[in-house]
């Protein structure tokens, strides 16, 4: 008995105690699980497609982050160059707030059709409204200076909780339908008519245009914009079906968004193929409602705004542009009507891609620093464009 006890003691001295071994095993398993579910920063994923030079320039402009798949298009006159990794020109993405440029085009088109006027008030669209909100004009919404809040007021405590929770579980936070958007106007507080970006405002604008036309927003986009332009890969979804999830900025899965009644603010899905059609048609003013892109007033120190569209004041050349972001997608579209150049980037990662503007335009600081060195080449480029 004593020999057996001495043997166990001697054996234990040559290895970690049992509890320590279990703890080390648990720690190792935990580390393995965390490594598996916590993505590490890395470049774009998937096989390269299209033009390798464009993709190399894009990777250089966007830098090293946790990217997933990307599709890009560079426009020069009528020539379009596509590139991507893990995606191509017909890969579907959420374009987020670039949707607002479609809503703005519908606004311009509705004016041309005599359905509304620029100064039509919400109280004229929905006569039951009263108070300050009834005096808000459609143009003030289109120019992001209506005083409406940035987000839709939550219709109930439960909806408010679910909206906040969606930020943590990466699901669509927009829960109200078109009726909820209209009903929310009865209780909304209207602020000063100062420049302030409002998703809620564009949801209201889109539903107002649908009310004036006697059609829903989805049909307006299809019948007045995408069908006339042959944009067969662009649509307003009515469910999350048909699109795989995107990814958060850190690489975690994020569910598709459909936005319900807020669809006019950011629900459209499209491809770089179709976005290149949209860019050229707006640039050439052959698109329905293309006049929405014309800058009308200052928005901030570096941009003027038209109806939805921004135009920079601090780049060379200045770009007319809009970007977009949903839970797991980001987008950018910008162009210069004079040079006829433009860039489009769509990605299923929640990392902003606005830096792609540098592929067709230079920031003012860069222009100032290098002006003395590039006067001759700049003159040559201007001559070539004219």
TrEMBL record:
<protein>
    <submittedName>
        <fullName>CubicO group peptidase, beta-lactamase class C family</fullName>
    </submittedName>
</protein>
<feature type="compositionally biased region" description="Low complexity">
    <location>
        <begin position="371"/>
        <end position="386"/>
    </location>
</feature>
<dbReference type="Pfam" id="PF00144">
    <property type="entry name" value="Beta-lactamase"/>
</dbReference>
<dbReference type="InterPro" id="IPR001466">
    <property type="entry name" value="Beta-lactam-related"/>
</dbReference>
<feature type="domain" description="Beta-lactamase-related">
    <location>
        <begin position="71"/>
        <end position="357"/>
    </location>
</feature>
<dbReference type="InterPro" id="IPR012338">
    <property type="entry name" value="Beta-lactam/transpept-like"/>
</dbReference>
<dbReference type="InterPro" id="IPR050491">
    <property type="entry name" value="AmpC-like"/>
</dbReference>
<feature type="region of interest" description="Disordered">
    <location>
        <begin position="361"/>
        <end position="386"/>
    </location>
</feature>
